[in-house]
Amino acid sequence: MAVNAAAIYRDNKILTATPAELTLMLYEGAIKFCNIALMAIEKDDIVKANTNLQKAQKIILELRATLDFNYSVANQFDMVYDYIYRRLVESNIKKDKEILEEALGYIREMRDTWKEVMKQAK
């Protein structure tokens, strides 16, 4: 039986990650799936685009679900996540690269902001 070292490493990385690192991983995952979807749209691979846009949408929903509304900034994050989610859905329905690129830009901004927050917290 062959052991997949990469899968074991990934699983251990997830199991030992802090909540902040897990959030960063979610952003990175959403960006990855959006990029795959962009390439799929360019190649007219509608099934692959749909699959990866749905993965990105699920990640945005997870980010929304983990918001702590004891902090006032959570309401603003919620509005941004709601907007990104709606844009991802729209880009999926229309298979529209421009809409997807807009959503991807916001996800990257959120990820970069999160990285800064993580740096300042150390």
Automatic annotation (TrEMBL):
<protein>
    <recommendedName>
        <fullName>Flagellar export chaperone FliS</fullName>
    </recommendedName>
</protein>
<keyword id="KW-0143">Chaperone</keyword>
<keyword id="KW-1005">Bacterial flagellum biogenesis</keyword>
<dbReference type="Pfam" id="PF02561">
    <property type="entry name" value="FliS"/>
</dbReference>
<dbReference type="GO" id="GO:0005829">
    <property type="term" value="C:cytosol"/>
</dbReference>
<dbReference type="GO" id="GO:0071973">
    <property type="term" value="P:bacterial-type flagellum-dependent cell motility"/>
</dbReference>
<comment type="similarity">
    <text>Belongs to the FliS family.</text>
</comment>
<dbReference type="InterPro" id="IPR036584">
    <property type="entry name" value="FliS_sf"/>
</dbReference>
<keyword id="KW-0963">Cytoplasm</keyword>
<dbReference type="InterPro" id="IPR003713">
    <property type="entry name" value="FliS"/>
</dbReference>
<dbReference type="GO" id="GO:0044780">
    <property type="term" value="P:bacterial-type flagellum assembly"/>
</dbReference>
